[in-house]
Amino acid sequence: MTEKAYDDIPGTFVFDADRSREGYWLNQFCISLRLQKNRDAFKADPEEYLSRFAMTEDQKQAVRDRAWNRLLELGGNIYYTSKLAAFDGIVFQDLAAIMSHMSRDDYRKMMVDGGRSIEGNRYKSEWEKK
Amino acid sequence: MARITAGIACSHVPAIGVAMDQGITDQPYWQPVFKGFEFSRKWNEENKPDVVFLVYNDHCTAFDASVIPTFAIGCAAEFVPADEGFGPRPVPVVKGHQKLASHIAQSVILDEFDLTIMNEMEVDHGLTVPLSVMFGDRKPEDDWGTLVVPLAVNVVQYPAPTANRCYNLGKAIRRAIDSYPEDLNVHIYGTGGMSHQLQAERAGLINAEWDQNFMDELVNEPDKARKIDHVEFLRETGSEGIEMVMWLVMRGALDEQVTEVHRHYHVPASNTAVGHLILENHA
User: Fold this and answer.
1) Which residues are in the Extradiol ring-cleavage dioxygenase LigAB LigA subunit domain (chain A) (predicted)?
2) What string of DSSP letters covers A75-127?
């Protein structure tokens, strides 16, 4: 893949055409969980349900592991993967805490205190210095 | 003739809808968010629109990964609130203005903006939360008190349409509405934002200084705001902050000079900075 102007933003997967192509069936699996009948089917037999989607083995494993950042790395988009989280009963804010390696309470407090600062969070180079 | 009398910018954080649906808006966490909407509801009551032209984005609800229209206008008679994974929001069905919607579609397509036409579409929190903000609590058996023409904008898969493209589309929508013969009071909403990132290790990013500056520019110097590029949105306002391009559609449809009658900004609602503006046209 060629270098992209947004590749130097830290801790961020920009969901572009390349990721969309790679993550297509993963995202279609996730979005299918929007509907109750599909949630029921996934719950009844997760492996059988996963087999209905042409995902890679890595993607399926990331689903089994609920490896939320890995799912994004493999082409998942947050609006899709959040449906899988919702299936597990995880609310959006707690999902955000998990993805940024924080406890639920610490993350919530960070948000109430004004959110994650932009200072030091614009460029990957700023994270590498840490 | 139809005329656009006001533009409204409003975040559409799903948790705002949940707080209303659960009746917890007076809790300390939510109180400051909803305090800033009190003026808006009174203003809305006094300046009641016949139609709201509502610019929002679908969150992979009506459109999954198989179809990703950059701009899609809702021309259906009604739009049912969708099940987004927790059951549909308990709010009224959204009623369209089919004749106005198809007039706008025809007009802006001939004006060289190639919209996708949706004759059936479910709508998610992106559309219903701003209506709840402006129109207050409504039960499913009520009506919203306005007709709605929805315009869904892709901001999920990069690239979203540019800020400049959105601004110019707003101008084309203005021309379309100005040329509609029925006497209608139209409000235009630009929804989403402000700074927020919902994903990965930088989740929770907020940039209040940038947001406030953006609101200033949007109101007073839209020629600056429409030149903001995508990388700036992504870097400075978080990966989901790019939703703010939709505010430019609203701004483009207003007069060059507008009166800011209300501004509200609060951090946080869930993971997001809540921003809200009411802008009036002079004419």
Assistant:
1) 26-112
2) T--HHHHHHHHHHTT--HHHHHHHHTT--HHHHHHHHHTT-B-STT-S-HHHH
